[in-house]
Specification:
Largest sheet: none
Radius of gyration: 18 Å
Helix content: over 70%
Strand content: under 5%
Distance between the termini: 25 Å
Structural class: mainly alpha
Number of strands: 0
Number of helices: 9
Oligomer: single chain
Shape: elongated
Low-confidence stretches: none
Length: 180
Amino acid sequence: LDFGKNLKIIEILDKILEYCPHDCEILARKAFVLELDGKIDEALMYIDKSLEICPDNIIALQTKGIINFNNENYESAIKCFDRVLFKNPKDTLSLLCKGLSLELLGKYQNSITCFSEVFDLDSCTDESIDRLGFHIVNFCGPITAESLMTQILITNPENKLALKIKNYLEKDQNKLRAKI
């Protein structure tokens, strides 16, 4: 999203909040857009307000986890994702983000466990593999993503999904090289 679109979205959310100031999902969505604009302190204020109203709101917890993740506050991010997973153990986005946070903290075995759960839950279609590959690259970059897939394959060389994602990453890097 570009700044102009974000500003329009914030205006719309503000109008809704005028009529529904305690809508925890709207507060969480505003926090998400503010975070995209780099307004971290303001985003966290809205998330905290949302969680004060609805302490177990999955959207607010996930948004706070993503904000913490994007600001390299991985331990806090994991706590948020764990709260989401307590309510919904099959939430693949929270499992994915938790796994990436653990990987960036150097807790590789725990990270691999999270990714294995994501792989078990997500249907192994080409589309889902591309999406997972895209998210992994987006969150931690292509080198770290490839490293993570290599770690999974060392632990389980037969992991077909890790092989497919590693191939996706190699294909993605070849596309980038071709553009250069």
